[in-house]
Write a structure and sequence with these properties.
This protein folds into two domains: 8-161, Resolvase, N-terminal catalytic domain (Rossmann fold, 3-Layer(aba) Sandwich); 181-351, no CATH class. A hairpin with a 4-residue loop joins strand 4 (129-131) and strand 5. It has 352 residues and is α/β, with parallel strands linked by helices. The protein has helices at 40-55, 79-93, 105-108, 112-124, 146-180, 198-204, 206-210, 224-236, 243-260, 263-283, 299-313, 323-331, 339-348, and strands at residues 14-21, 66-70, 98-102, 129-131, 136-137, 214-215, 221-222. The chain has a five-stranded mixed sheet, with helices on both faces. Helix 8 (224-236) crosses helix 9.
Length: 352
């Protein structure tokens, strides 16, 4: 008869908890927190895991054995996911009996092939992955749970399928938007008139963001999100982002891109972003500027940002526009304008 649930040895084992969300959009309250372990959604996952472990009379995962991150489950290069496996392998090598605990199979991964490779490697070191919500584990060397592991992978595979369908639908919505000439997402300003690209300053002073805030001898606070946002805003000048824009919009977009793209994809995204920013500078227009001067009104700029806005705001879901597509928006902007801009076109260009 197939065995399900925890193994008896887990009562004396060492649980390593792994929590993950794909983006900060899963809970708006998560956006304000840069530290993954301070994000409400991930805290809830960790508490849920420990509650279930306690119910099963198993040891709870210590805070030092909690790995949390904001990253797509389809990305095999997730930093904390890899650190989790390395930690488990290290404990096993020391003669301890670790096991990985997740809320449900989809939190471990959303790519079945990547998950199977990881599970196979862990299996050889007698490290199972245990999903507390379903009470399923993958088993390990000398403690096989083949039926249970199959169900675990089937549930994970279903999540991977859903992710793929969502991606296809997202790309279809972009294609549809291209045909209609409008997009529901406004995107966000690239601040083309700032004295320097805000993202350059953002990365140059990333060490400040990662510091714990501390009070200096002058009585001022240094380090942390507020100090980092202030630096970016001050250096980029009056046409750059406000402190609040850095803390919310810029940081949210950066966390999303970093967490959902591979290093190669992220580099391509930054090149793409710079290209669009340079075009706006050449056009002398910033359709999405709010507090800073927007420059002149430009139909090509309006059409461009209408069509590339989503790919800049969420590069994990929406593809980059090709050079040919971009050239089309600039040469013939009319079909790609929003309803509002189309009205302006009719009342100005259309009367000529």
């Amino acid at each position: 008869m197939a065995q399900f649930g925890k193994s008896e040895w887990m009562i004396e084992g060492t649980p390593l908890a792994y929590t993950r969300i794909s983006t900060n959009d899963q809970d708006k309250s998560d956006t304000a927190k840069t530290n993954a372990k301070k994000k409400p959604t991930l805290i809830k996952q960790f508490k849920f895991i420990n509650q279930r472990l306690k119910m099963e009379k198993m040891p709870e995962a210590k805070a030092s054995n909690w790995f949390a991150e904001v990253a797509s489950g389809t990305n095999r290069n997730r930093g904390q996911w890899q650190a989790l496996q390395m930690r488990a392998q290290a404990l096993a090598a020391e003669g301890k009996r670790p096991f990985i605990v997740v809320q449900d199979p989809s939190r471990f991964a959303r790519n079945t092939r990547h998950a199977m490779v990881a599970i196979d490697s862990l299996h050889e070191s007698s490290i199972p992955v245990y999903a507390v919500r379903e009470g399923l584990q993958t088993g390990s060397k000398g403690d096989l749970h083949p039926t249970e592991e199959l169900i675990f992978l089937q549930l994970l595979g279903s999540s991977a399928y859903v992710s793929q369908v969502q991606k296809e639908k997202a790309d279809q919505s972009v294609s549809s938007a291209k045909e209609e000439g409008t997009m529901s997402a406004r995107g966000m300003s690239l601040f083309p008139f700032a004295s320097i690209d805000p993202m350059e300053v953002y990365h140059e002073h990333i060490d400040v963001l990662n510091q714990e805030p501390y009070k200096g001898e002058d009585g001022k606070w240094y380090g942390g999100p507020n100090a980092h946002a202030t630096i970016v805003s001050n250096i980029t000048g009056e046409n750059g982002p406000t402190i609040n824009a850095v803390k919310t919009r810029l940081r949210a977009a950066e966390v999303l891109a970093r967490g959902g793209l591979t290093d190669k994809e992220y580099k391509s995204y930054m090149i793409y972003r710079t290209k669009i920013r340079d075009i706006l500078k050449d056009l002398g227009s910033d359709p999405y500027a709010t507090t800073s001067p927007a420059g002149k009104y430009s139909f090509p700029a309006q059409a461009l940002m209408m069509m590339v806005g989503r790919s800049l705001q969420d590069p994990t879901k929406f593809r980059q526009r090709t050079n040919e597509e971009i050239e089309t928006y600039l040469k013939d902007p009319k079909p790609y304008l929003s309803v509002k801009d189309s009205g302006i076109w009719k009342s100005t260009i259309g009367k000529r």
